[in-house]
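Dear H.,

Thanks for agreeing to be a second pair of eyes. The structure we're designing against is below in token form, covering all 566 positions.
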């Protein structure tokens, strides 16, 4: 045993000696290659090119030599701006952020507001591309706080609109975009790349609002500018937007045609923008999923998920939706294990996305509140100049008090009404089994003369048992195919025998299902409203909440809280 330990120690000493020699040798080589004498003869451009081509550790040697040549902080800040911009253009956002942050410190010292504004804008852009919404928002607000930065509003405001859009504040986002489109016409950015970028952001907001004609109009305008400037990013983004429009219009061949154009330009241009690539793959996958080509859809979804870093998976809304689509495709292919796995991943990511979204909304709210406080302070200063302002304040206080009291009264009345609606709903649920049995017997006893009508009604009953109404694909057309009739005939049968139009019929089934499952399934109650809406087949939480309240008289969130207290 002692001999073995001695042999082990001897080997360890030899290895350490070898490593020590290796480190010394390489240190000497680095010192010779990047020594002061050899670097002094290099031009600034050579040093910058060397920084781009080497590792961050070695780049520090070139960086120091480059900065030694400048005594002025503003010149150093401008150098960091150039270095950061270089890495930003190549898609290396981590290294670009490093240089932008260093440049910001020096620009603050030198009081160079022009360079400082540019550094903050590019820092915000680097964070925006990697879905660090909070940090991006902080950087953009820094720009707006710099005195004399009004000319940069046309660049900064659309980027803030992107974040507002990600937070689902679509009306505010559109307002900012429209303001930017008005401003850009009177600036040097008109018909340039920044003008195109504003058009792409505005078209994205219109897409979310389902205003497809506006999307196509802005996209065509932006594509004409992009072709003239050979602006590849604009071409890719706007071709993708047009593909998305035709996907939502269910014109899948035309959608695939525009997406193929976007993909072709993206690959030829060797662009490093992950978001563009993710968007292309996302809509390709959705088109193929709708055409029942689930394996092909999965290929695009796997590529999409591979593109994302672990730290941005919970932020990118299309990545989150891709997890749900993965689960749905596996379910259609009969792979239950993978389907369950991806649904679980979707639930986790969706919750994480909501948390990040709440944090950013708080920042937006604080900034908006600070702006409002500033306006109020200015108003109060003006009021102090005369007695008439005192009267105005008193009047305002009286009105505010009246409004406040009215709001409290309205709130209490609403709570009382909600409680009453909840109790009525709960009483109805307790008798639901007997009610369902009676309805079933009534349906079975319904005299039906036409064999075709009877066949269709049996088909509808079968689909209700299968809970087909929870599917995103549930529509009058798809349901008509499943019961082997046409959409017009099915609509008439539902009107006559169910006493409802098709939409009310489906919504009634979904809300009835939601009310029962929320009452019996504790885990389901823990889901976000957005996730519950998706489970029920709704495309938005707003649509779900609207139909829930219409049928029950209360909001789903109130219902969940009351059920949890029982």
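And this is the sequence the design step returned. I haven't edited it by hand at all.
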């Amino acid at each position: 045993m002692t001999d073995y330990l001695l042999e082990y120690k001897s080997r360890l000493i030899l290895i350490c000696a070898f490593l020590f020699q290796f480190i010394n040798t390489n240190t000497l080589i680095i010192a010779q290659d990047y020594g002061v004498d050899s670097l002094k003869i290099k031009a600034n451009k050579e040093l910058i090119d060397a920084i781009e081509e080497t590792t961050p550790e070695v780049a520090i040697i070139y960086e120091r030599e480059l900065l030694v040549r400048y005594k002025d902080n503003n010149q150093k800040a401008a150098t960091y701006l150039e270095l950061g911009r270089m890495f930003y253009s190549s898609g290396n956002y981590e290294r670009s952020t490093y240089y932008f942050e260093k440049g910001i410190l020096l620009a603050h010292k030198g009081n160079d507001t022009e360079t400082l504004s540019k550094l903050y804008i590019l820092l915000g852009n680097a964070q925006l591309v990697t879905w660090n919404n909070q940090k991006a928002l902080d950087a953009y607000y820094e720009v707006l706080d710099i005195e004399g930065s009004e000319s940069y509003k046309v660049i900064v405001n659309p980027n803030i609109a992107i974040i507002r859009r990600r937070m689902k504040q679509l009306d505010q986002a559109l307002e900012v975009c429209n303001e930017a489109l008005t401003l850009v016409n009177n600036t040097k950015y008109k018909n340039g790349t920044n003008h195109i970028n504003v058009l792409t952001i505005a078209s994205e907001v219109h897409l979310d609002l389902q205003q497809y004609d506006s999307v196509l109009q802005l996209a065509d305008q932006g594509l004409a500018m992009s072709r003239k400037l050979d602006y590849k990013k604009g071409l890719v983004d706007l071709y993708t937007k047009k593909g998305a429009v035709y996907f939502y219009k269910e014109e899948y061949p035309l959608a695939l045609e525009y997406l193929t154009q976007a993909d072709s330009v993206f690959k030829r241009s060797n662009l490093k923008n992950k978001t563009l690539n993710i968007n292309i793959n996302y809509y390709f996958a959705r088109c193929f999923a709708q055409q029942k080509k689930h394996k092909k859809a999965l290929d695009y979804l796997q590529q999409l998920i591979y593109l994302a870093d672990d730290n941005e998976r919970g932020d990118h809304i299309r990545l989150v939706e891709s997890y749900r689509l993965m689960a749905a495709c596996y379910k259609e292919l009969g792979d239950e294990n993978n389907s369950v796995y991806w649904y679980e991943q979707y639930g986790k990511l969706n919750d994480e996305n909501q948390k990040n979204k709440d944090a950013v909304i708080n920042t937006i709210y604080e900034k908006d509140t600070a702006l409002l406080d500033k306006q109020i302070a200015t108003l109060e200063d003006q009021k102090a100049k005369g007695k008439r302002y005192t009267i105005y304040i008193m009047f305002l206080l009286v009105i505010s008090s009246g409004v406040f009291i009215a709001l409290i009264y309205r709130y209490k009345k609403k709570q009382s009404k909600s409680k009453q609606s909840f109790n009525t709903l709960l009483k109805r649920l307790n008798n639901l089994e007997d009610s369902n049995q009676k309805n079933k017997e009534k349906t079975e006893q319904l005299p039906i003369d036409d064999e075709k009508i009877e066949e269709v009604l049996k088909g509808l009953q079968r689909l209700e048992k299968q809970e087909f109404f929870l599917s995103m694909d549930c529509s009058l057309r798809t349901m008509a195919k499943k019961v082997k009739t046409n959409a017009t005939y099915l609509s008439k049968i539902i009107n006559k025998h169910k006493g409802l139009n098709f939409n009310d019929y489906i919504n009634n089934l979904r809300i009835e299902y939601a009310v029962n499952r929320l009452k019996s399934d504790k885990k389901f109650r823990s889901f976000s409203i957005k996730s519950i809406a998706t489970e029920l087949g709704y495309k938005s939480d707003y649509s779900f909440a609207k139909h829930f309240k219409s049928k029950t008289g209360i909001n789903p969130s109130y219902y969940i809280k009351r059920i949890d207290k029982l």
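Two observations from my side: The two ends are 70 Å apart (CA to CA). The mean pLDDT is 78.

Warmly,
E.
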